[in-house]
Amino acid sequence: MLDSLRQRLRQLTVLLAVAGMIIFNVYVRELPFYSATRQKISPQLATQLIPATYTALIWYAIFTGLIAYATYQLLPRQTRNALHNRLAFWLVLACVAQVVWIYLWDLAIYQWALCALFVLLEAVIVMYRRLEIGRIRVRRNETLFVRLPISLFLGWLTITTLVYSTTFLTLIGWDYLNISPELWAIIAIGLTAILAGIVAQRHHDFIYAAAVIWGFSGIAVANPTSLPISLTVIVLSIAMLLAILASPTAR
């Protein structure tokens, strides 16, 4: 009886955490009393790694996936599924960290906002590793409602961490070792692609790779006059997909 209550509490906590995060992002941030306090990054501080605004639409896919997971883990058959117990704390932490990150960044408290982003990234990495994607086969429902949302989340956070870390360095006046902005962008994209490619290849994860490539495409679109950046994005995106195709699937 007590164990059943604990499981139900865990399920409801996950649902409320996900719902709270989405409500904050979709509704609260647009309310007048909140919008009036938000700080905008000055255009001259923008870096060549900030993707086109359309890429932010991926958050709606992420939110949809997380709501699907939160609903899925509420099902009676999932009440005693040990996997959900292993994910619950980290998902709740991720939801809280995401809200804190956005809130602090909007208020121009950049150092602590970046710390919250790193907490968010770590929480999602822990969940991703516990899912053992690409290493063990699972039922279709688990792939669709559990693995897919976390893969998408981590893929986009890979790009998000790159963008916000670089923007923070620009805000504090770092000169990027006197490297030109275009060359720095190419180096940063290259390093991120290598890291993302390793993750995608090891886990045979097309969803993770797709989220990263989506972000890269936005960077290319945001820099229409930079042929080197566009070529870098195209070449590295193709290389990432080929690396996944060459990797073994879970047996």
Explain what this protein looks like in three dimensions.
The protein is mostly helical. The protein has one domain. 73% of the residues lie in helices and 0% in strands. It has helices spanning 2-26, 32-35, 58-72, 82-106, 110-131, 140-171, 181-203, 206-222, 227-246. Helix 1 packs antiparallel against helix 3, helix 6 (140-171) packs parallel to helix 8 (206-222) and helix 7 runs parallel beside helix 9 (227-246). The radius of gyration is 19 Å and the shape is globular. The model has no long low-confidence stretch (mean pLDDT 88).
Question: What structural keywords apply?
Answer:
251 residues; 73% helix; globular; mainly alpha
The rounded Rg comes to 19 Å
Shape: globular
Largest sheet: none
Encode the helix/strand succession as letters: HHHHHHHHH
Structural class by helix and strand composition: mainly alpha
- Give the count of helical stretches: 9
**Share in β-strands:** under 5%
Structure summary, number of beta strands? 0
**Whole-number average pLDDT?**
88
| Structural domains: how many | 1
Distance between the termini: 38 Å
Percent of residues in helical segments? over 70%
Unreliable segments of 5+ consecutive residues: none
